[in-house]
Amino acid sequence: MYIKAGDTVAIIAGSDQFSVDKKGKTTRKTGRVLKVYPKTDRVLVEGINMVKKHEAPKNQKDKGGIKEQEAPIHVSNVAIVDPKTGLPTRVGYREVNGKKVRYAKKSGESLDK
User: Fold this and answer.
1) Which of 10, 61, 104, 107 is most solvent-facing, going by the fewest CB within 10 Å?
2) Is the pLDDT of residue 73 over 90?
3) Domain edges within the chain
4) pTM
């Protein structure tokens, strides 16, 4: 999988794709990848695809209720953000000093530190 935990990604498909500011300008939502699920091809992105979860109280002092949390999103619906331009980009691979390194196709900038 070409996306790793800690990468900044933009949402390129789905209902949670754009945010509208007060002036009516639409921008693409971005977030940091918290966790990667390679078996199901999904990623957990911070602040994206928020769902409500009903929780029962664990003990007498604890309150139950409705809590919001992130749900995984399919990896095909996200694209890595180019560190140079800030736009969504595809990922390429090249060999540097005998190591396989990811790079942004738009700018050629390396994605691995």
Assistant:
1) 61
2) yes
3) 8-81, 84-113
4) 0.85
CB atoms under 10 Å from CB of 91, counted, come to 14
Contact 81, 91 (CB under 8 A): no
Number of neighbouring beta carbons within 10 Å of residue 20: 9
Dump the DSSP string for 55-82: E--SSSSS--EEEEEE--EEGGGEEEEP
* Separation of alpha carbons 30 and 83, rounded Å: 13
Q: State both tokens at 74.
A: 């399919």
Distance, first Cα to last Cα, the chain:
17
**By three-state DSSP, how is residue 15 classified?**
coil
